[in-house]
Design brief:
This is Deoxyribose-phosphate aldolase. InterPro entries: DUF6503. The protein is an alpha+beta fold and about 250 residues long. It has a single domain (about 25-245), classed as outer membrane lipoprotein receptor (LolB), chain A (Clam), CATH 2.50.20. The chain is about 25% helix and about 45% strand. The longest helix is centred in the first third of the chain and has 19 residues, at about 5-20. The chain starts with a helix and ends with a strand.
């Protein structure tokens, strides 16, 4: 066998081993990411409006930049969150008087919109720990139920938050999600897809935002509460004016 053929064979063998080593939960998430847009999430600029605020999202495999722009009583506000940190400008002037607490709050707010808009992309982050909880059924459709937690190292400020995702067994689409959080007194939410838009080959979803009566409800109980009609509609999560542009290479 020639050296080039041997190298090619070894590469294929290594790739096969790597694929086989992925857990069931990882394979399910892989399929979901592919169904929602796959590698189109990478190397793109996305513009969208959410609750009268304009967001611009840049993503590559190694870098990101999230921008939100709005007008309030102080003027035109522009928040920029990227690999280097967070900067706020008002009418073009950088604000240097922000406390660490305010910087953290603004950063979380900007990141949250980008994170949820891009789901399920991002669930293969190295800090994400995925567990397959088995198969389940909602509204007559079969789902794989995946739980995602985060390692403390690299998991961000709120690594203790827990997430559940319902991925269709046949179409691999994420129709529901639920999560517990610890900021602002904590709580738990469930989101149900209420509308879908495909732009630039990427699937964007709107949601009904649901909550239980007891904010200390375990996130694993949300499906039963949903089925029994015991979740209250808190708000709607609607993305508008979406545009997707590939970044120049």
């Amino acid at each position: 066998m020639k050296i080039t053929q041997l190298i090619f064979t070894l590469l294929l063998f290594t790739l096969a081993i790597s694929c086989n080593q992925r857990t069931e939960a990882e394979k399910i998430v892989d399929a979901a990411i592919e169904a929602h847009g796959g590698n189109r999430y990478e190397e793109v600029r996305i513009d969208l409006d959410f609750r009268d605020i304009h967001y611009t999202i840049f993503k590559t495999p190694s870098a990101f930049e999230y921008i939100r722009e709005f007008t309030d009583s102080t003027g035109v506000v522009r928040d920029v969150l990227n690999n280097s940190g967070f900067v706020r400008t008002v009418n073009g002037t950088k604000i240097d008087t922000l406390t660490e607490e305010r910087i953290g709050a603004f950063s979380r707010s900007v990141n949250s919109v980008a994170y949820f808009a891009f789901l399920p992309y991002g669930l293969n982050d190295p800090a994400a720990v995925k567990t397959h909880l088995g198969e389940t059924e909602l509204n007559g459709k079969a789902y794989d139920l995946i739980k995602v937690t985060f390692k403390q190292e690299g998991g961000g400020e709120h690594f203790e938050d827990e997430f559940l995702y319902w991925f269709g067994k046949e179409d691999h689409l994420m129709d529901f999600m639920a999560y517990s959080y610890h900021t602002d007194g904590g709580g738990v939410r469930m989101r149900e897809v209420s509308g879908v838009m495909e732009v630039g080959g990427i699937r964007f979803q709107n949601y009904l935002n649901l909550k239980p009566e007891d904010k200390n409800t375990p996130v694993e109980s949300m499906q039963d509460l949903y089925i029994s009609g015991k979740l209250e509609k808190l708000s709607e999560i609607n993305l508008e004016n979406i545009r997707v542009e590939p970044l120049p290479k």
